[in-house]
Amino acid sequence: MSSSTKLTSAIGELDIEWVRQQFPALQQTVNGQPAVFFDAPGGTQVPQRVIDAIAGYFSTSNANTHGAFLTSARTDQVIAGARAAMADFLNCSADEVVFGPNMTTLTLALSRAVGRELKSGDELLVTVLDHDANVSPWVCLEERGVKVRTADIKRSDCTLDMFDLQAKIRRSTRLVAVGWAANAVGTINNVREAVRLAHAAGSMAFIDAVHYAPHGAIDVRALDCDFLACSAYKFFGPHLGILYGKREQLQRLRPYKLRASSELLPDRWETGTQNHECLAGLIAAVDYIADLGRRHKPEVASRREAILAAYEVIRQHERSLAERLITGLLEISGLTFYGIKDLARLDERTPTVAIRMEGHTPRELATKLGERGIFTWDGNYYAINLTERLGVETSGGMLRIGLAHYNTAEEVDRLLAELRGLANR
Ligand SMILES: Cc1ncc(COP(=O)(O)O)c(C=O)c1O
């Protein structure tokens, strides 16, 4: 794209050359072939600046918090900077951002705190479509005598059955746990409606945004959810998890914590010493996304606006990749496609698709593709309710092809050519 085009307010096409230059891992080769990273839902690659920020923390700022000396003050700044970055990323206040090792651990901590106020006869609602990290932490609470209901899917396109979801939310429902996007098949759920239904019944709403975060902008204020969790390693950052909680909920609930640790927000939710180096990397990841937005919309005034601009161009690029991928896959004989395949409905999905192919287990497909330098996932990727519901759990699950904005049309074509070759064998 020319620089004159970038000065206009039109978002233009993703500057894929610049994007790919940011990610050193994309330069790797396998058996002489460039590596193709179609494993994004399992974890994305990171820009050089994230690597530098993590290493830089150790060179200049490594210490524990709240000490009366330079490196400790720098560490405090890193933590404050990471909260500010996530506040821009999620559109919330910095004291509503809780850090932890990963989404699963944060969700288990939250479920334990929620469990303290539940009583026998209370209900919770989970879904068939979700990763188990948004199922088991709630099912664990059955030991307190609560009932967990499960909203079903429409099997034909792996979308959430919103009628079933609505029917299963009752006056006794205390929490509705829904994923924003399905890590196995890419469905984007109508989370706004799920939150509305939950609140109408007097229930809290928890959103798992782990799979959605690399693909779409998050606005917790607009969504009005009580809680939302995501993982930085899925949106170009390091391995750590983030929990948003509405201030009043974070204040009201009682997390399990040490006496010596602060009762202030959000500290009362953060157990032990945080991963400071990864928080430094997280700031860099959010700044990468913002810089991507600024390249395409230089007139943006704030980091939040730059993040929104980035997701506009990311969505557009991923949409065209998904169209190419799905069109190509549907032409391959002996292939079963799970999820939304209607090209008019690409807004309802991420560029994550799941397939099976006659004559090959998902593991065999992933292995053969891996040998050819194409990285995909096989199995259930912890979306175990879904693989059971689809009847594929005992036969290897599905092959998941998960794209990110740093992928290209040429990479999609390479995958399709390989799959066509395998289909004929
Ligand atoms: C949709 C979804 N939710 C939750 C998780 C769990 O995240 P974490 O690894 O941060 O615990 C994953 C991980 O793959 C996921 O894809």
Description:
Helix content is 40%, strand content 16%. The protein has helices at 3-7, 16-22, 48-60, 70-90, 103-115, 136-139, 162-168, 191-200, 220-223, 247-252, 276-296, 303-330, 362-371, 384-389, 409-423; strands spanning 29-30, 33-34, 36-37, 97-100, 123-127, 147-151, 153-154, 159-160, 173-179, 204-208, 227-231, 241-245, 335-338, 352-357, 374-375, 377-379, 398-402. It has a seven-stranded mixed β-sheet with strand order 4-12-11-10-9-5-6, sandwiched between helices. A hairpin with a 2-residue loop joins β1 and β2 (33-34). α3 packs antiparallel against α11 (276-296), α4 (70-90) packs across α11 (276-296) and α11 packs across α12 (303-330). The chain is of the alpha/beta class and 425 residues long. Mean pLDDT is 96; it is low at 1-8. Residues 41, 102-104, 131, 133-134, 179, 183, 208, 210-211, 231, 241 line the site of pyridoxal-5'-phosphate.
